[in-house]
Amino acid sequence: MSQIHDHSENTPHILVLGMGGTIAGLASNPDKDPLQYAAGQVEIGSLLDHIETAIPDGVCLISKQLANINSCNLTEPLLVLLGNAVREALENTKVKGIVVTHGTDTIEETGLFLQLICGKFAQNLGKRVVLTGAMLPANAPNADGPSNLLDAIQWAASPLDNCPGGIYAVFGGRACMAMDLAKRHTTALIAPIQSSPSSPLRLINPSWLSGVKAVEAAWAEDLPIPRGHEWPWVEILTSHAGARPETIDLWLGSKVQGLVLAGTGMGNLHEQWLKPLSNASKQGIAVVRTSRSGAGLVLPNIPEKDFEGCLAAGKFSAPKARIALQLALNAEKQAKSSGKSLTWQDFFARIAVLPEIR
Ligand code: ASP
Q1: Where is the Asparaginase/glutaminase C-terminal domain (predicted)?
Q2: Where a domain ends, among 193, 218, 243?
Q3: Is 31 annotated in some ligand binding site?
């Protein structure tokens, strides 16, 4: 753990957790080719040293390196580590807010994960957890990391009068709910936030704020974090022209517990898949339907009736629906062990109806 800036017992702390990513990346020839780089090279303490002079008054920064990876390699045990670190920090009365620096490739999974495991907790405590990252490595000319990191710290430290505690993300001068993040461009500087409803950081848009409040009202209870080795095995399969039944049949004899289907359009599945999918569902494999389209809702029984056991994932992309299904399957298991008869469908349905902020 490294500590910087005016550190006194009574000064509220902002904890910055480093997970790696391009924000901590280094290019070998940054002036010529900033996109040729290795992610997760610079320690979080050094990233903070570069912005130290601009840190808002009245807070001190504490940092902790949890990982330093390219987030394309994100693992479930790392999500557990992060989830526990965030919950522990939320409980700490000295910590006013938390910032997480993360690679953008899988930031959408982590954003939804944090919302589902501690969104309510953060809201009740009136603390902000803020995810951020960068699209250019730390040594690139015009690197976007320092301003994103500073904005995230400011958002975590700023008073709640204009916006409640909860799980947010900050990128390119805009804020959104972390669960609305989605990287939808390979290189644009605002790639992770551009398709999400968002608000300029210093001018909160009233419709966005009412959306945040609607999401927070709808999310009544956080879900447990699965233990590292207990994450349910869930795969993502994409429907496409020429889809074959074998793609589903192959999973029937496996230990897979869930399939997330990225359908075409409104979550349509190729007719070649329907029979084997219905068999999968009868065998107890959880099946969830999303869209490969990139935006818009997938609603139950639209345009055709869902086969028995298959749930629509609402606004969630396939990677987000996968996290949601894993947490729902784990919640079912934990509910059963404490004598409650709630199913994964009960938990998943609560997630799939979270409002879209528009
Ligand atoms: N591949 C990088 C990562 O996800 C991309 C980024 O951070 O922007 O770690």
Answers
A1: 234-336
A2: 218
A3: no
- Ligand 1 atom showing the smallest separation from residue 134 Cα: 8
180 with 284, same domain? no
**88 with 195, same domain?**
yes
Q: What is the pLDDT of residue 4?
A: 45
**For residue 4, what are the β-bridge partners?**
61
**241 shares a domain with 191:** no
The CATH number for 325's domain is 3.40.50.40
Cα Rg for the chain, rounded, in angstroms?
21
Same domain, 125 and 188: yes
Question: How far apart, in whole angstroms, are the C-alpha atoms of residue 272 and residue 150?
Answer: 51
Q: Whose CA is nearest to atom 7 of ligand 1?
A: 103
pLDDT of residue 161: 76
The residue written with tokens 């517990």 in the block is 257
Please report whether residue 223 resides in a domain: no
Interval between CA 36 and ligand 1 midpoint (Å): 12
Low-confidence ranges of the chain (pLDDT < 50): 1-5
User: 75 an active-site residue?
Assistant: no
